[in-house]
């Protein structure tokens, strides 16, 4: 019971505080309560995202479901102007309950930030964007290749000009790190990955995994309602001897579904190299963006390198005339601005593809294609309703085990799936 006591004063503070909105210079785009003086400021806030989904022609997952996709609370602020902090806690099991962000920042260098603690690595613009601000309910399939990135404990440095940004960081394990401690399976023979293979995973803070992560962005065009962006991200990950396999997996862009249809184990990994090339453009109410990711996993014991790749292309149009809110100093999209009394309406379309097959390495995780159409209503700066319809195709999983295979996904997941899902999002 003692573990829950800390939450009582936080709830009281939230309940007694008026709604407020943090400015662009704060660490967060929205907060429920703010306290500020010349040497100290404090923000409190959070998010709730409630998802509802219906599946068509899906014998694997059933017909429908609902869940809290994210339920988070945060506190952030600055101390003596040169020091900052952010701590964010996730309450849902689907969001890997526990601390998401937990870091301190030093702001005393010109146009630069030094961050120490658990924060995001540099994988892609879509990954760095907050889920509060992305156009679609779920990120594209290629995010499966970010299995050893996302948020991790480390030290990073970022610096920027008016239209460019450079970042470099070194990271160790995540606070909720899981490592594959034993692996002797070849074929995924069931729908539950925890029992289908002779595989064991354990949660640890001593995985031996480390990542060096870098990012560079350039925005040659930036004016009101007009942006052109280019970015590149590089990541090198080292695996310790105790990591018997590297695991990459994803669902068909719905969090309500339980089974990750695309899944790949790479046995005896020694290191991983990833690169992401991305671009985006905004022209008034129209925007387009895309990214390509390549991943190469080197292996011990003379085993061949495994290579995977993915890409996406996405376009959106805001019917009420606003432009997407792009930040050229960091190369990210933020929440829509200038929302009128009737709210703002947005249409979006995305196609993405992920290839987790590498015949030369004897790995057959499958290929996935996904096309999603969405409509969003921004009621105000705190409330957004989202409706997405997706068609997912999973294929190219062998029905028999190829000679020399080291991993084969279950052919039952060669399937087509149609998904209709709705999200209610509340930021406070």
How does this model look, in words?
The structure is a single chain. The chain is mainly beta and 428 residues long. It has one domain (2-427): Porin, CATH 2.40.160. 4% of the residues lie in helices and 56% in strands. It has 3 helices and 24 strands. Strands 2-3-4-5-6-7-8-11-12-15-16-17-20-21-22-24 form a 16-stranded antiparallel beta barrel. Strands 9-10 form a two-stranded antiparallel ribbon. A two-stranded antiparallel ribbon has the order 13-14. It is globular.
Task: Please describe the topology of this protein.
Layout: H1 7-16, E1 33-36, E2 40-56, E3 64-79, E4 83-90, E5 98-106, E6 112-120, H2 125-128, E7 151-160, E8 164-171, E9 178-183, H3 193-196, E10 199-203, E11 210-223, E12 226-238, E13 245-250, E14 262-267, E15 269-283, E16 286-299, E17 306-318, E18 325-327, E19 332-334, E20 344-358, E21 363-378, E22 383-395, E23 407-408, E24 415-427
Parallel strand pairs: 21-23
Antiparallel strand pairs: 1-2, 2-3, 2-24, 3-4, 4-5, 5-6, 6-7, 7-8, 8-11, 9-10, 11-12, 12-15, 13-14, 15-16, 16-17, 17-20, 18-19, 20-21, 21-22, 22-24
InterPro entries: Porin_dom_sf (IPR023614), Porin_O/P (IPR010870)
Protein name: Porin
Pfam family, one: Porin_O_P
